[in-house]
Amino acid sequence: MKNLRRASQILFFLVFVYLFVQTEYKGRNELGLPVRLFLDFDPLVALSALLASRAVRAIFLLSLVTVALTVVFGRFFCGWVCPLGTLHTLIGRFRMRALKPGRNEGCFPRLRPVKYFILVFVLVAAVFGWNAAGYLDPISLTIRSLAIGYNPAINKMVRSLLEWAYALDVPYLSPAVDGLYSAMVGTVLAFEQPVFRQTLFIGSIFTVILGLNLLAPRFWCRYLCPLGALLGLIGTRQFGARVANDASKCISCRKCLVACQGDATPFPSGKWASRECLVCWNCRDVCPADAISIRPTTARTGDGNVDLERRWLLASGAGALLAVPALASGVQRKRADPLLIRPPGALPERDFLRRCVKCGECMKVCLTNGLHPTFAEAGLEGLWTPVLVPRLGYCEYNCNLCSQVCPTGAIRPVSVEEKHEIRIGLAFFDTSRCIPYAFGRNCMVCEEHCPTPRKAIVFVEEEALDAEGNAFILKKPVVDPDLCIGCGVCEAKCPVLDLPAIRVSAINESRSERHRLFLGI
């Protein structure tokens, strides 16, 4: 069974990596199965989005498959399926090899309740409208960390290696490298080198989480993971495979404690903790006396589950109750940040924040690299939600990929035709920097790149004199607010590179009546 579990972990991890790579612009405006498939089977994402938004989506029903199997087998998802769990298992092996029976099992028993307190905090916060699950949910955390923290670095390393090999100018090598590069772009590599704000910050957080395995194997899964806590509670009375330690055979070697991935205490007899068991079954494999058995049964074969003290559970819930109104007191609730430009199809801000799980899929799939994680624009409540940054990338007129990958409907599915009618902001000229206004020279870059059928940027012509006193027609660009959709291509392409002479604000967005520029009075 250990080999079967390892095969399952490898298989699901490879599927996860494949879907992660697939969640990328491939030269066409459609995707196969994006990596959101793992989120669709995630009960914590479904439950938190349901509680926060008070809306049921059909896709959430897939998470019931995970729930049903957990009732029978316990935390099988953690031990057999979860890609983050597989990474923890791999890194934790270095720590497990250093453990010695009887001296150090790599356990911190006092930390076992922490993940349950985190779960209570997340669910209570969701009831009152703050969807905080995405920060700590292992699937969302992994996708976000890889997409924003690791993928840009991996792309850069591979590109640099190929460029170095090509620059060697070795016969037969350079053409081969060129062919390899062409094959990798749009499949494994992005069309352009991705660059994100907060790459180092988000990548460092994930590195620390993986590094915790050096304190204890699968430290995150044992003590911090709210999804693991939820699955542990659901699978408390699992009857598909329960661990039993025969005290008459046990020789107290404690090897089972060292091999246990979940701190489930298979020793001493009668102290097995079903909520902590990751169904790895290492305990049975390492037992030299055949004292440990795993069998289907309805009988209780152990009662070592941690006692969740009521006062700490209440404190966790109270903390969430205090956090929600504290978030609501932020200045962004009174007046939205002008740079908070959401993707086309994003729900109204309150509903958007209740559904978004900060997974980063929309940012990874954006073909112009225009979507980035927020930091302060939306307050703590909206940390790491997507925002369009036109200076770094624009919203492609004929692209709707971000609406295809959103797992919770925070960005609703929109067709390309419908997207053409959605306004996400409005462009404004800074006449002190615009070349025709400030320097009396014609520049038509913004008008040339404007994608709307009727140009949202038009020219006001006036007669002017050049430096030699010759008359010419000076074309001063202006924005038509009825036609501008706020895509940001004008800002991205403006030749005034340091601070563009035309900049997009979130005003006039379609999703908000309050953000209209003209009220029709």
What structural class do the secondary elements suggest?
mainly alpha
Oligomer: single chain
CATH class of the domain at 426-505: Alpha Beta
Q: Report on the biggest sheet.
A: 2 strands, antiparallel
Please tell me the CATH architecture of the domain at 426-505 by its name.
2-Layer Sandwich
Query: Unreliable segments (pLDDT under 50, ≥5 consecutive)?
Result: none
Distance between the termini: 72 Å
Averaging pLDDT over every residue, what do you get? Answer: 89
Strand order of the largest sheet: 1-2
Compute the CA-based radius of gyration.
27 Å
- Percentage beta strand: 5-15%
Task: Indicate the percent of residues in helices.
Answer: 40-55%
Protein architecture, described:
With 521 residues, the chain is mainly alpha-helical. Among the domains are: 239-304, Alpha-Beta Plaits, CATH 3.30.70; 426-505, Alpha-Beta Plaits (2-Layer Sandwich). Helix content is 43%, strand content 8%. The strands form four sheets. The protein has a two-stranded antiparallel sheet. It has a two-stranded antiparallel sheet with strand order 3-4.
Q: What attributes does this structure have?
A:
single chain; 521 residues; mainly alpha; Alpha-Beta Plaits; two-stranded antiparallel ribbon; 8 strands
Blueprint of the fold:
Elements: H1 2-22, H2 36-40, H3 43-53, H4 63-73, H5 76-81, H6 83-96, H7 114-127, H8 133-136, H9 138-167, H10 173-184, H11 199-211, H12 219-223, H13 226-234, E1 242-245, H14 255-259, H15 282-286, E2 292-295, H16 310-328, H17 331-334, H18 349-355, H19 361-365, E3 371-373, E4 386-388, H20 401-405, H21 416-419, E5 426-429, H22 435-439, H23 445-449, E6 457-465, E7 471-479, H24 489-493, E8 502-505
Antiparallel strand pairs: 1-2, 3-4, 5-8, 6-7
Helix pairs in contact: 3-7, 7-13, 7-16, 9-10, 9-11
